[in-house]
Amino acid sequence: MRGLGRRAFILGATGTTALAVMPFKARAASSFDFTANFGAVPTGAKVGLAELQTIWVNPAISSIYNADTAKQFFTIASGGTYGSHCFRYFYPQGSVGERTEFYQVKLGPQTVPVNVEYDWMFENDFDLLNRGGKIGPCIRWGMPGTTGTNLMCWWSIANRNGVISQPYYQFVTQSSAGEFGGGSYSKNTIVLGQWHHVRLQMLGGSGGWTKGWIDGVLVHSRGPSPNNSLAGNVQIDFASFFGGAGSTCAARWNCHARHANVHIWTG
Fold first, then answer.
1. Helix, strand, coil % in the chain, rounded to nearest 5
2. Residues 230-251: tens digit of each pLDDT
3. pTM value?
4. In the chain, what are the domains?
5. Which of 198, 196, 186, 46 is nearest to 122 (CA)?
């Protein structure tokens, strides 16, 4: 899936907080190349730790951390790109911020660039014009709030003097010191029911960098990254939520989004 150019696919609308962690497994190699196997889980199945352990199988994975133990937010659906199964996110009306609608694939310490790519689509029922929020996955390198730096992708709109612009994808490099260099926006706007290809690349350390592509076009490049330890653990964070400016960003109705063809590799 590397080197893919712009591509879009149209899909019509279709329709307590204990944390679970997969036992530690030693990584077999410092380099890796693997994909999510959403086809290993039946469509319609709600996703918890057992399903994640079936979807994500590779010696590079040190552990899986699942916050959605009640299986409220994730299901496996048909209708992914190229007829594949895909991962479906549910955003309840009124939801805002990262709560328990996330899980993490942990990769341990890395010394080479880590890449993540996937196809993403907002379904036709999505509340796309309500300010913005985060899509998943993102890359976290090091400990958040201390030596950590995050490379994230958001959906974002601009509301200036009451005029709302069309929504774009936005990449942000963020550490405890704040956003590094500001956000970068995709050339193309977001259209409900349309698939787009997202790629993130990150290297930790004082000479590291972060990059982001939409539909094969580089739109974000930052580096060297501040406040970042090369020796820090790397985790791929599968969180997606409405947020950015408090309760005014909350979902105004129940809505959904999907990702498919998730690919993680080094180099």
1. 5, 45, 50
2. 767 899 999 899 986 677 889 9
3. 0.85
4. 20-255+258-266 (2.60.120.560)
5. 196
